[in-house]
Amino acid sequence: MMKNASRPYRILCIVDHLKGGGAEKILLDTAIHLTKQGHQVTIVPLNPNDIKIDIPDALTLICPDFDASLYTGKLLRKRTLPDADVEKIKTIIAAQKPDLILLSHAFAFCLSHVIHGNVWLWIHGEIFKPYRQPTANLFRWYKEYRRYYLEKKYFIRLFDGKKIITVNQDLEKDYQRLLPNAQLTTIYNGIDITQIDQHKLAAPQKCQRHSKIDPFYLTNGKVKLTPLISY
To answer: Is the pLDDT of residue 201 over 90?
Structure first.
């Protein structure tokens, strides 16, 4: 538990890749913001190939050569982490001595079983659907029942007892019921409004989860990760 907020924090972010995508962009924007506040941020991609996001010099980027099995396959199934890769991660942690470790979406979550410290799993979307799709087809019913059973089993095994960040309260409520021993908190995704066309922002726009984007929400969304260090 960290209570001295006057000194810079050492923050280690482990992410699947840096090819692009919403979760990766949010992570990078957050890392840049934290460095501007004086904190030391290191990013480790599990898949160091085909990096398409510009990494500022203020961030430390470490790209070990991991086995592809670490960041491919199905997340909510039985997975075995390569011993050599686990040792690489532990070596990085020992050298960095981070105050906070962020495991970002999604295969990086599996590392939470083998690393220790102030570790938070940052869930950017729905990992497990806590319901079954209705169907009158017997084969599809069995397939859906099997999917639900296996994913629920491995979801609980992976996340229960962990410290978890969700990006909306609906996810937090759904997952809290499934994960009674987990510590969950919601931190809404921040948005850099300087990257948004202000003329388009003023007009209603279609998006995935809402019929309109609320400009008030967009201009006031904030990311504050440093309080996590005090948990």
So the answer is: no
